[in-house]
Amino acid sequence: MHEHIHALAHQFHSDVISYRRHLHMHPELSFQEVETAKFVAACLTEWGVEHSRGMAGTGVVALIRGKKPGKRTVALRADMDALPIREANAVPYASKNEGVMHACGHDVHTAALLGAARILHSLRDRFSGTVKCIFQPGEELLPGGASLMIREGVLRNPKPAGIFGQHVHPPLEAGMVGFRPGMYMASADELYVTVNGKGGHAATPQHCIDPVAITAQILVALQQLVSRYADPTLPSVLSFGKINSTGGATNIIPNEVKLEGTFRTMNEDWRMEAHKRMKGMAEQIAKSMGGSCDFQIHKGYPVLVNDEALTSRARNWAVEYLGPGKVVDLPLRLTAEDFAWYSQKLPACFYRLGTGNVARGITSPVHTNTFDIDEAALETGMGLMAFLALRELGN
Predict the structure, then answer these.
(1) Domain spanning 189-298 has what CATH number?
(2) pLDDT tens for residues 175-187?
(3) CATH topology of domain 2-183+303-393
(4) What is the pTM of this model?
(5) How far apart (Å, rounded) are the C-alpha atoms in residues 246 and 255?
(6) Which among 162, 195, 198, 215 is least surrounded, fewest beta carbons within 10 Å?
């Protein structure tokens, strides 16, 4: 099977490059992936792959049934949405949708899963079990397409025994992949805080309740949440990236100050405790200084935990498929991914696909307007996904 997958990945490589370039030229924002879904469905229809559309709005789910399809099911997932970024790359396949760009590589994920589906469909008479291919909308926008597809039954009928997902990784050269069992990516919550006081002339602060001074105290105190309340062995990050006082000036104390930030950690129990402590601490400080505080927490994606056994198996199979020099171990990341919702429901393995090429200057990080890939990575991505699925099915 190893040789068959390599041969088919090589055979389909040029087609998958064309899929990726088409998707890159026509990016769509989260939950607006109408044309992307049509393109995915058209490819699946052309190959005769069973599929359905409309889950979570624009999601597409394909089933590739081998011999004895009820024996076992494995899922493969790709996200389809793009980002509100204006592309700066001068390439023939640059985005044609002004202000929208596949700057996080979801065009790569979708194209690679299409390639994997085509490989698996070509080999359906050679393996037992079923592979469920999930083309998911809305990874970049809360509540995340994964949570919606799960709610609508994507993990039922048939129920997968495990799920794999891959993500582009520019620091790794194309042809390489990386794995990490256990805790891998953080939860991510958005914080929206309004500190209310009483505005007035800056020269007469005794007649005011200064929300700027209150905010300063809140900011300093909240940092102790990480430094003094969190287990020092547990990764946690609390950062505020935006502060805005409404109506303030050099000689005007405003009525309110707004803060926006993020809280990230790697433990769900501590995450919930931190939420209570942050809110209580901010409200008490504001009250003690004569003001008030509205502390809103928009819960984001949970901690992404890679199943230890599944990920260890996948790493070994990646070595088998690519060779030992092509597989590396990954560090923890405090970025977040809605693939975490799948990892809360069944054994999951989320790994990194190398897409960089230093010699060619392909090094831009994701979420930048110059992000691009070495398209040799597509052959690796589709072949490895197909190989992992068949190995986990026991073929």
Answers:
(1) 3.30.70.360
(2) 999 999 999 999 9
(3) Aminopeptidase (3.40.630)
(4) 0.93
(5) 7
(6) 198
